[in-house]
Amino acid sequence: MSWDNNGGNQNPWGGGGGPRGPRGGGQQPPDIDELIRQGQKKLKGMLPGGGGKTSLLLGLLVLLLLWISTGIYTVQPSQQGVVMRFGEWTETTTPGFHMHLPYPIETVLLPNVTSINRIDVGFRSDPVVTRRGRTQANYLNESLMLTGDENIVDIEFTVFWRVEDAGQFLFNIQEPQTLTIKVVAESAMREVIGRTPIERALTEDRGAIQREVQELTQSVLNGYGAGIQITDVKLEKVDPPEQVIEAFRDVQAAEADKERFQNQAESYANSIVPEARGQAQKMILEAEAYKAEVVARAQGEASRFMSVYKEYALAKDVTRKRMYLETMQEILTGMNKVILDENATEGVVPYLPLPELQNRSNNRGGQ
Questions:
Q1: Residue 75 in contact with residue 81, Cβ under 8 Å?
Q2: Do 64 and 79 belong together in one domain?
Q3: In this structure, what CATH number is given to the domain that contains residue 125?
Q4: CB count, 10 Å around CB of 156?
Q5: Calpha distance 232→226 (Å, rounded)
Q6: CA gap 256, 250 in Å, rounded
Q7: Which helix (H) or strand (E) holds 79?
């Protein structure tokens, strides 16, 4: 096909025949040789001495120094240097002044490794505003978990982490690295909650759950060679699902009442039982004392009887008479007495109460 509609032998820059043909009028093609010569002239004009060999070598030396300087870099205290050779990670450098092979043979990345980052699981600290003006701050597919006693709990927690090894962080886990951390932390939380009863998860075991999740997440990431350190795991919320939270609160209130009644009953038992045991011990001790007293009295009476019997066996008449007299003395003590003499002719013999008279005289003398 010809270059124009008239079928002439024209070239694409206009003009017929050839590049320098007689049929002009269009743009001529660039002359490559002429452009090279003009560039050489300009370079010679820029070099000192009119472009001699010495100036050319000096220029090449300057260019070489500039190229070598592309391998000089400084790592700040908050950074680590990740050196790559043709895109392959070769080493990780510490803060300070360093050099690597000039660009493009080697390049370096300087990620920050001291800043503490956070990942929210089950919610977002910067909630998304919907078209109706509401905020979507919770994500049930992340927060709803099954407990060890087959209950459902809504958990929101935050993972705090930092880069420990920049090379491992950039090359051993797939971007975005935060997604890997989030998935591992969520999996660890589900495992820990899966063996924890809901009551313990809601009350006293929150600290233990945080420690277990942190240790398990760190162990998994170490297995990946992620170069990440988990600094802390914080539970933001541990509640039953919103649909059953009222019923769950009623159950918790009933459990609290049950616990309170049990404590009251145990307190009452603790106060009554020792008192009853004390009274029983007192009665036992009193009975033992009475037993000892009765036995001792009986033994004393038996011993006294045996001593009397021995005396009676030695002198029956004397002992019998003494026993008679002692018995009569015991019976007649304190009684008014009238003495009758069976041999008296007049019958009744007057009795002079000498003891009573003696007592009366003593009383008068004291007054």
A1: yes
A2: no
A3: 3.30.479.30
A4: 20
A5: 17
A6: 10
A7: none
Token pair in block for residue 323: 């026993």
Distances (CA, A) of 153 to 106, 212, 326: 51, 18, 97
| Of 115, 117, 119, the residue nearest 80 (C-alpha) | 115
- Tell which residue, 220, 222, 162, 173, has the closest CA to residue 192: 220
Cα 69 to chain center, whole Å? 52
Indicate whether 234 and 122 sit together in one domain: yes
Edge to edge, the sheet with strand 106-109 lists: 88-93, 81-85, 106-109
Is 148 in the same domain as 105?
no
Tell me which amino acid residue 203 is. T
Same domain for 185 and 219: yes
Token reading at 338: 């009238």
Q: Cα angle vertex 82, ends 78, 83, to 5°?
A: 140
Domain, as residue range, for 63:
41-68
Strand duo 117-121 + 106-109: pairing: unpaired
CA distance 56 to 85: 31
Cβ-contact 192, 213 below 8 angstroms: yes
Residue range 329-363, pLDDT digits in tens: 888 877 766 666 666 656 555 666 666 666 777 76
Gap between the Cα atoms of 298 and 294, Å rounded: 6
Question: At which residue do the structure tokens 């929150």 appear?
Answer: 206
Residue with tokens 């090279």: 36
pLDDT in tens, 18-66: 444 434 444 455 566 676 666 666 656 655 555 557 767 777 777 777 7
What's the pTM?
A: 0.50
The owner of tokens 């600094």 is 231
The two tokens of residue 4 are: 């124009």
